[in-house]
Design brief:
By secondary structure, the chain is an alpha+beta fold. The chain is built from four helices and nine strands, in the order βαβββαβαββββα. The chain has helices at about 15-25, 55, 80-95, 130-135; strands spanning about 5-10, 25-30, 35-40, 45-50, 75-80, 100, 105, 110-115, 120-125. Strands 5, 6, 7, 8 and 9 form a five-stranded mixed β-sheet that branches. Strands 1-4-3-2 form a four-stranded mixed β-sheet. Strand 2 (about 25-30) and strand 3 form a beta hairpin. The longest helix has 13 residues, at about 80-95.
Length: about 140
């Protein structure tokens, strides 16, 4: 069985955040979702647990970072093409997301970023497969 990752993210308004990611084309696993948590399915092995802040506090003794003012993590997703990078980020910005960093274009690698409604930073990157194969 391949290793999986479950990224836990605190959210202020679960329904708003679910609606945002739904507009990006992602679904949710109802088996691991309830009124305080939604299991966002990014791929067969990548999931984001969107957890309301009061529930999130049950899992840590530390303060929850104010992601509007500080950055604790940058989540980066791969895309199959430059066009898919633009499509996903443009949809995110049109669906309630916020701008983040300037686009990055190195020819063989292209990326853009956005902030979700809770200001978590997401990057979407494409890399030319030939450039990856040349790295050995």
């Amino acid at each position: 069985m391949p290793q999986m990752i479950f990224v836990n993210l605190p959210v202020k308004d679960l329904e708003t955040t679910k609606g945002f990611f739904g507009k990006l084309g992602y679904g949710f696993n109802p088996q691991f979702s309830d009124e305080t948590t939604a299991c966002l399915v990014i791929s067969d092995t990548i999931f984001a647990m969107l957890i309301t802040e009061p529930r999130f506090k049950d899992f840590t003794k530390k303060e929850i970072a104010d992601s509007e003012k500080s950055t604790e993590v940058i989540l980066c997703l791969s895309a199959e093409s430059r066009e898919k990078v633009d499509e996903l980020v443009d949809t995110a910005l049109a669906s309630g997301g916020f701008p983040a960093n300037e686009p990055m274009d190195h020819g063989f690698m292209y990326g853009r970023s956005f902030q979700d409604p809770d200001h978590h930073l997401w990057e979407v990157m494409w890399m030319d497969p030939a450039a990856v194969e040349g790295q050995s």
